[in-house]
Every structure is written in C-alpha cells, then in structure tokens.
Amino acid sequence: MQITTYEYKGFTISVTPIKDCGDQWDFEYRITKTGEGGQDTDPAPALTRSQTAGGHATAEVACLAGVEVARIEIDNLLALSREREPER
Q1: Which of 10, 32, 43, 56 could be 62's S-S partner, Cβ–Cβ 3.0 to 4.6 Å?
Q2: How many whole angstroms from its chain centre is CA 74?
Q3: Which tens digit of pLDDT belongs to each residue from 65-76?
Q4: SS3 label, residue 8
C-alpha cells in the first residue's frame, strides 16, 4: 500500500489511498504535529479523516487530493487557534 507523507506548517500529513467497492480510489489522512507521535494521550492528538465518496481515478490522484484536503484543515485549525489567543 502506497502512503504519501507531506510536511506542512509544522504538521505531518500521511495519506493512504483506499480502493472503494468499484474501480475508484478514496483516501484516509492523518495529521500530527511534526516530531510528535500523535498518540491519543498527547496534548494535541493526531486527527484521522477519510473520504469515502466521489472517488478518484488512481491511487496517486487520491493521495494528492488527500494532501490538499488535509492542508485546508490545517489552515483552518491554525486560523481558529489564532482567534482564541488572548490579546496582549
């Protein structure tokens, strides 16, 4: 099984392509802070998500799509964390 790993803004994205019931590919991605294990006991545990609809023609395209979706989620998480920081 091919796994794509990508570093983005201090996070590591790991995407695994998944063959659906037809001849299309979906994906699952995991986001962890770079250099941390992402175990459930960590202060910031890893996030795991999957796409099971839509499908992609190849495993490579599914991995690229997974990286893009994970990058958007990271951008959103960072934006939310900045909104919650108290002003000094």
Answers
A1: 56
A2: 8
A3: 999 999 999 999
A4: strand
Identify the residue whose tokens are 């958007």.
72
Residue 77 carries which side chain, given as an amino acid letter? L
| Per-residue model confidence (pLDDT) at position 43 | 47
Query: Which residues face 17 on adjacent strands?
Result: 27
What does the pLDDT look like over 12-71, one tens digit per residue? Answer: 999 999 988 778 999 999 999 876 655 545 445 678 888 766 688 999 999 999 999 999
Burial class (CB in 10 A: 0-12, 13-18, 19+), 24: middle
Amino acid at 65: A
Place of tokens 């000094």: 88
pTM, two decimals, is 0.78
